[in-house]
Amino acid sequence: MAERADPVAPARTGWPLLPVLRRMAAMPLKDPFAFAGVLIYLLFALVALFADQLAPIDPMEILFTKAGKLAANVPPGAEFPLGTTNLGRDIYAQLVYGTRSALAVGLSAAVIVATVGTIVGLLAGYFGGTTDAVLMRIADMALSLPFLPFVIVLTGFLGASTSNIVLAVAVLLWPSSARVIRSQVLTLRERAYVEAARVTGASAWRILFVHIAPNILPLSFVYAAIAIGWAIITEASVSFLGFGDSTSVSWGMMLQDAFTSQALSRGQYAWFVPPGICIILVVVAGFFISRGYEEVFMPRLRGR
Amino acid sequence: MILEVDNLQIHYSTRDGVARAVDGASFAVPEGRIVGLVGESGCGKTTAVRAIMGVLAENGRQAGGRVVFKGQAMDEATTRRLRWRDIAYVPQSAMSSLDPVYTVGSQLIEVLTKRGGFSRAAARARSVELFDLVGLNERRLADYPHQFSGGMRQRAAIAIALALEPSLLLADEPVTALDVIVQRQILDVLRSLQQRLKVSMVLVTHDISVVAYLCDEVVVMYAGQVVESGPVREVLARPRHPYTMGLRNAFPDLLSDALELVPIGGSPPDLREPLSGCRFVPRCPFAQPACSLDTAMSGNGAHQSACRRDSEADTLRTAALDPRTWQRSSSFAMS
Amino acid sequence: MRLVLERFTHNALALLAVTTLLFFMFRLMPGTPLAAFINENLNADQQQAMLEQFGLDKPMWQQYFIYLANLLQGEMGLSFFQRRSVMTILLEVLPNSVILTLTSLIIAYIFGVLAGAWLAWKRGSWIERVAVPAVLATRAAPEFWIGMVLLALLSFNAGWFPSGGASSPGQAYDSNWERIFSLDYLHHLALPVLTLALYLQGLPLLLMRSNMLEVMHEEFVTMARMKGLSEWRIVIGHAARNALLPVVTAFALGVGLSMGGNVVIETVFSWPGIGRLLVQAVSVHDYPLAQGAFLMIALVLALMNFVADLLYMVLDPRVSHGRKG
Predict the structure, then answer these.
(1) Lowest mean per-residue pLDDT among A160-174, B168-182, C37-51
(2) C230 to chain B: which residues are within 8 Å by CB?
(3) Residue C170: its pLDDT value, please?
(4) Closest chain A CA to residue C276
(5) How far apart are CA C259 and CA C273, in angstroms?
(6) ipTM, two decimals
(7) Which of B96, B111, B149 faces C227 most closely, judged by CB atoms?
(8) Given CB atoms, is A145 within the 8 Å cutoff of chain C?
(9) Which of A35, B313, B323, C61 could make an SS bond with B240 (beta carbons 3.0 to 4.6 A apart)?
(10) Which phi and psi angles does B60 have, rounded to 5°?
């Protein structure tokens, strides 16, 4: 098995957290794809923040033409950059406001997955024994649940709300990150500097959070970035199937709307293509960033 | 001479510049003899041998010098033709050099049928012969690499290397990964094979005791260059290059006098830096200003040394036996 | 072998956990405890039959074991809206899902393996720099969106393919086999398979590529080169053979995962499979049918996980042949 370099050399004094954070912040500067990913995230974050300024129309408002008729299926033009839905709603406004929902879902799922996965991985890996066995059994169970069907059943019966979706996604995604983090903790546990800390009497919690956790951080970010993408796609899929939150505008809801109102047969590409493109961009950004952190964590030896 | 390496230069392009892994190394292998190629890790011995086989990494290339085998210059086409058929390789770690998903027997048969033109039946018969030659039970042909012990794997690797009856065998640290007792067994296998088959060998190692046990000639390498060469008994009993003298001290069991381990202070130079003159200067207790200018091999007959102070070799050798000589060497490096 | 038994029990227990979870989830539905299996849609006789079958008047823990016993016999109750046995309905639509999944996966994996190996060959070239992000983009797009775009372009716009369903109206066949291999069926299968294959190929492609890159640096590949073997033998016989191991396992896992993920594809193309059935059942709160569809998907997942474990054991000699000497 190849020896992996720890992101931080054995710390003799002080908390290795700051050097790790510095390296993680510097990563996008070295990896052009990760840099692009960060830019995409920033772009969408700005859009979400300034949605009101970018699209002053209420995305759910039913609009009428000057003649008083319903402004349904208006083709893209000066007044409506992407046209309108069959119920007279501004597609462009929906796209812009959909950013908020996407980021909210993505980020909350990512935070939960990263936190739970990291904590479980740390505990299971470091303490081993019964803790490890119990936690890993639970992780296994979560992995044998069919992902999308479970989310559907949950939202279908417990009610369609964004928080339910986020919860379902988080419950199903944390095991994979926990597993990998656990195996990394197992390796780190045997490192000389951990042994040294133990010998000098440091408590288990101190070792865990001062020595081991900072080295795990890039890995947590890898899975957080992946989780963002997964959560957004899942939310979109669930909304598409009709189990989404009907009160908020999301890209998934746009796609469902387009599908059920026969936008496909009408060739209304301006309606259903842009939301898909946005999803692709955000998810791909997550992939690039997670690949970047994977490099930080497990540098591939190039040009030996 | 079955093999002549003449001023070989192998360069690796790395992110931080060109590393001159082998920088003007020359040595020769007499027919039917075992030549030990010895030096610490990074001295270029493995690179030189792999260059002879023509399997450098993607960023490596032969930047100068030439390799002559049986009087023929080894260009790419010749290398490819002679590979395994006349020049074979025994790897350091047989575990990683054998494909884990095929049985050892099938890998042996593969070489015989694809490179040797054997029919499958003939190949199978020859495999049994080869295993017998290295002392392995023929039943083992049906086993996978991971089912072999370390020593058995090395024997299998030797069997595969000898499959096509090569004239030259390049053994790259063949016993380094084994424990001492098994080491001795494998070395004995190599010796008996060499005597029976009259195969010439180059044995790459960092362990002088292996060289002493098995080799007829020895070539000492340091920082990509050859610093001393000659008959083994001669070189080890009366070394003429300070590096060899230091190496000898690091293996006290060979000597009757020195009873303590005397390491050579410092470490080998960075091969990416342009270097001139003798590379050993920073660590050499006998270095003089002129040594940094240039070096050349000199000596009488078979025993050659690259040290400028070769004429004073006997005096230096006596001084080298004193551990205090080596403690002082770092002070010159500072100045 | 002990290992086989261990993996079997592991997967079986996981499945048991899932069914138990489902049991309690459905019991927590709003309504009476009977609501999981009885609905006013069913006639009085049917309701009584269900009551007895599942012991709905008995205490919860007893119901649990009756539930499990019934499951093992394939008894999952009656669909509220179709008023037929859930099992019968499931078995009718299962072949459609299986065919969709297997066909798409096989195409995706064959393409992915070949393209991945080829990309590994093209290491460092501009093709690689462009191709890898492009493939990542296919993994980033929601499957159903790809389906929607293809549907709009190739069906509604170009008219090359039907817009949904598994058969055109008015078709009659003598047997199921005849139906499956009929041109009409295949014509309907084409777009869903194309969509799924497009989405799925990313995984085997990237996996094969990264495996090949790793394996090509292994010592035994260099040794093969030193032996003077042909490039073909080295790349295909040695490198690819080793690189394929994880891909084959991934295929088996992919079957299990796809059965669940196909939900959206089946909806876009109105493909009559288990996924679409699940969605419909959940929408109308047809609990027995929803439960049955979910369990069937979970069963396939657990089964394929087990198959993947077996494959890994069989294909890697290091696992199947223990250590000796």
Answers:
(1) C37-51
(2) 114
(3) 67
(4) A241
(5) 9
(6) 0.83
(7) B111
(8) yes
(9) B313
(10) -110, 150
Whether the predicted pLDDT of B287 surpasses 50? yes
Task: Report yes or no: C116 and C206 within 8 Å, Cβ to Cβ.
Answer: yes
- Residue B192, chain A, CB below 8 Å: the answer is no
- Mean per-residue pLDDT, C226-250: 88
Do A304 and B13 lie within an 8 Å CB cutoff?
Answer: no
Q: Is B222 helix (H, G, I), strand (E, B) or coil?
A: strand
Q: Scan for tokens 């926990």, then name that residue.
A: A178
Q: How far apart, in Å, are the Cα atoms of C12 and each of C70, C115, C238?
A: 17, 36, 36
8 Å CB contact of A304 and B15: no
DSSP A209: I
Give the C-alpha separation, C142 to A146, whole Å.
Answer: 17
Instruction: Convert the pLDDT of each residue in B15-53 to its tens digit.
Output: 778 888 888 888 899 998 999 999 888 788 888 998 988
pTM score, whole prediction: 0.82
Which of A1, A30, A300, A304 is the best mutation test for B, with the most CBs of B within 10 A? A304
b (16+ CB within 10 A) / e for B164-197: bebbbbbbbbbbebbeeebbeebbebbeebbeee
Q: Which residues of A touch C282 (CB under 8 A)?
A: 152-153, 156-157, 243
Residues of C whose CB is below 8 A from B116? none
Partner-chain contact B13 A302, CB within 8 Å = no
pLDDT class of B174 with cuts at 50, 70, 90: confident
Q: How far apart are CA C130 and CA C119, in angstroms?
A: 11
Task: Name every residue whose Cβ is closer than 8 Å to that of residue A219 and which is 6 or more positions away in sequence.
Answer: A177, A180, A181, A184, A293, A297
| Cβ under 8 Å to C: B residues 33-92 | 53-55, 80, 83-85, 89, 91
Identify the pLDDT of residue A1. 35
What counts of helices (H) and strands (E) characterise chain B?
Answer: 12, 11
- Give B 3-32 residues with CB within 8 A of chain A: 13-15
To the nearest 10 degrees (0 to 180), the angle between helices B120-133 and B150-162 is 130
C313 in contact with B, Cβ within 8 Å: no
Contact indicator for C189, C102 with CB cutoff of 8 Å: no
> In sequence order, which residues have a C-beta less than 8 Å from that of residue C134 and are 6 or more positions away?
none
Determine contact, residues B24/B30, Cβ cutoff 8 Å: no
Q: What is the pLDDT of residues C12-30, one digit of tens each?
A: 888 888 888 888 877 776 6
Whole-number Å distance between alpha carbons of C300 and A240 = 24
B14 contact residues in A (CB cutoff 8 A)? 303
Cβ-Cβ contacts under 8 Å, C156 against chain A: 264-265, 267
- Whether C14 and C22 have beta carbons less than 8 Å apart is answered as no
A156 touches chain C (CB under 8 A): yes
Interchain proximity C317–B101, CB inside 8 Å: yes
Distance CA A212, CA C15 (A): 35
Q: Give the count of beta carbons closer than 10 Å to the beta carbon of residue B281.
A: 20
Using an 8 Å CB-CB cutoff, list chain C residues near A41.
none
- C278 and A149: CB-CB below 8 Å? yes
